[in-house]
Specification:
Largest sheet: 2 strands, antiparallel
Number of helices: 29
Structural class: mainly alpha
Distance between the termini: 101 Å
Radius of gyration: 33 Å
Length: about 550
């Protein structure tokens, strides 16, 4: 015989935020599948009968500690939004390597000689005074600083700030600007996450494959202890709540046999639920909803994934900005020597700002396929695409450890928009199992408390089990994460992707908003050009 202590009714509090979506989803699912349920045997019809009569009571039937556990586990109620992942971003100021420092030192020495020892020769042979020489030399210097700085700024404004910086309430919906600024990635996280996950499921991994490696029998063994204790506790609680006098008078042997049968039945019950759920996973789980909500709640995670995988490329683009600035600065200096015109400074600034930002963004993903030049001595390809094998491992690790984990998948399954279908499935299986467990005692129980209270008790017990689902399934968190083995699977899939598909996996998330950064470069170029015109004159 099982030893048992009397469990008093548990105090409850209203939980509209948790149970209302579950009950609403269940009602919607029932209304959509009414003909099928009416034509099938089982407890489905019994669930519908008396549902509204006990609806109000069931909304208050989830223990307070369960609500706290749901909030602890659920991605919509995370206590630490925008967590610090230790993400690195390319620095604006740093000490260059010695060849660059040596080149700068040589140039400074030459300029110093021109302004001192060779001052007379400079004026005689070139026709330049020391002041004019400095004005001409300032053009490539300003161009280097401006191009380097505004490309770094464009990269920074792509990811930061995480939250809107400006006048509160004056930001355009899902846009980075308004009377202030928010990083392009965090401001459009819903759109970016939706585009990304659609490409992800089309080109990389389907929802079925995510759960394919879960073995229902092993998972049943992993959660057996927690599920058995939950079922036994729920039966005792419901007995005291629905019919306390009858439950008190019921022979202990009957109670213990009922609880014992429940414990014996729980592994089979879970295996049946999991088998049916895996066969209908698309109907009960919305991966896009889960990923979008997870990244909306933690915008730093999306930044972390892009910056960690593309850090080397961002540094390369930042440094390339200085070389592009030097080239355009020399061209501008020659233009001003041949055709000196102050109004050309802002014009040149706009052209350089637009062109360099456009080139910087294009260099990330284009050309998609390698293009050899000079007999293969130079190969052009998008800088992010050249490291596909290396990025695959980093990308898969971040995604598998921070997004597709049991701690985020389980709450999404039981509380997502499609959770009504899962809850209805579990409700049918649990109530059917309870009838099997009652066995020969079922008639005596129904006679003792009445048929309606008995059906009400089954429905109430089922709601309690559903409320405990996160706790039950998360007791097997280690097994679920290990069995899915998503990091290795994702790494292999990303590495084997065609480079064009690999580019489409990530690039579309940025494509729509690239023009903002290009336009910003033109605006900054115009401002710098006007300042040059004001300071240098013609």
């Amino acid at each position: 015989m099982l030893s048992r202590t009397r469990t008093e009714p548990v105090s409850v509090t209203p939980v509209k935020d948790i149970t209302k979506p579950l009950l609403k989803g269940r009602k919607d699912f029932i209304s959509q599948t009414e003909p099928a349920l009416n034509s099938s045997a089982g407890c489905g019809a019994g669930v519908r009968q008396g549902f509204q009569a006990t609806d109000c009571r069931r909304k208050q039937s989830v223990p307070e500690h369960v609500i706290l556990e749901w909030k602890e586990a659920h991605w919509q109620d995370s206590k630490k939004p925008n967590q610090d992942y230790g993400t690195n971003f390319p620095r604006l100021f740093f000490i260059p390597r010695w060849p660059k420092l040596l080149s700068c030192a040589v140039l400074l020495v030459l300029v110093g000689l021109c302004l001192t020892v060779r001052k007379a020769a400079l004026k005689e042979h070139v026709g330049l005074t020391g002041l004019k020489l400095l004005k001409y030399l300032s053009l490539p210097v300003v161009s280097v600083v401006f191009t380097y700085g505004h490309i770094w700024g464009a990269l920074w404004m792509t990811f930061y700030p995480l939250e809107f910086f400006g006048i509160p309430g004056m930001q355009l919906p899902e846009q980075p600007w308004g009377l202030g600024w928010q990083g392009m990635v965090p401001s459009t996280v819903r759109k970016m996450a939706s585009i990304f996950i659609r490409n992800f499921t089309e080109k990389l991994l389907t929802v079925d494959e995510i759960f394919a490696h879960l073995d229902a029998s092993i998972l049943a063994r992993e959660v057996d202890g927690c599920l058995s204790e939950t079922l036994a506790r729920v039966i005792d609680e419901v007995g005291w709540e629905v019919a306390p006098r009858t439950w008190k008078k019921m022979p202990e042997t009957v109670k213990e046999e009922l609880i014992l049968r429940v414990r014996e039945e729980s592994p089979q019950l879970l295996a049946e639920v999991l088998h049916e759920a895996k066969g209908n996973i698309d109907n009960i789980f919305d991966l896009e909803e889960m990923v979008v909500q997870a990244l909306k709640n933690d915008k730093a995670l999306l930044n972390h994934s892009f910056l960690s995988c593309g850090f080397n490329e961002l540094e390369f683009i930042r440094d390339t900005g200085a070389y592009m600035g030097l080239f355009f600065g020399v061209v501008q200096m020659m233009q001003q020597k041949i055709y000196p015109a102050g109004w050309m400074l802002p014009v040149f600034g706009v052209v350089v700002g637009l062109l360099t930002n456009w080139l910087a963004l294009k260099m990330i993903f284009e050309p998609v396929h390698p293009k050899p030049l000079l007999g293969g001595r130079i190969v052009l390809q998008g800088v992010f695409l050249t490291r596909q094998n290396e990025v695959a491992a980093m990308y898969s690790n971040i995604f598998a450890e921070n997004v597709l984990t049991a701690r985020k998948l389980v709450p999404a399954l039981v509380n997502g928009q499609r959770a009504g279908a899962l809850c209805d499935l579990i409700r049918r299986e649990v109530e059917t199992a309870m009838d099997r467990c009652a066995g020969s005692a079922q008639r005596m129980i129904a006679m003792s408390v009445g048929k309606e209270p008995y059906e009400e008790a089954k429905a109430l017990a089922t709601d309690r089990v559903i409320a405990d689902l996160p706790t039950i399934f998360l007791s097997a968190e280690a097994y679920v994460d290990k069995a899915m083995n998503l990091e290795q699977l994702l790494t292999e899939r990303v590495r084997s992707m065609d480079v064009a598909d690999y580019e489409q996996l990530l690039h579309p998330a940025f494509q729509e908003d690239e023009w903002i950064l290009i336009l910003l470069g033109g605006i900054l170029g115009f401002i710098v050009g006007m300042l040059q015109w004001h300071i240098l004159g013609t």
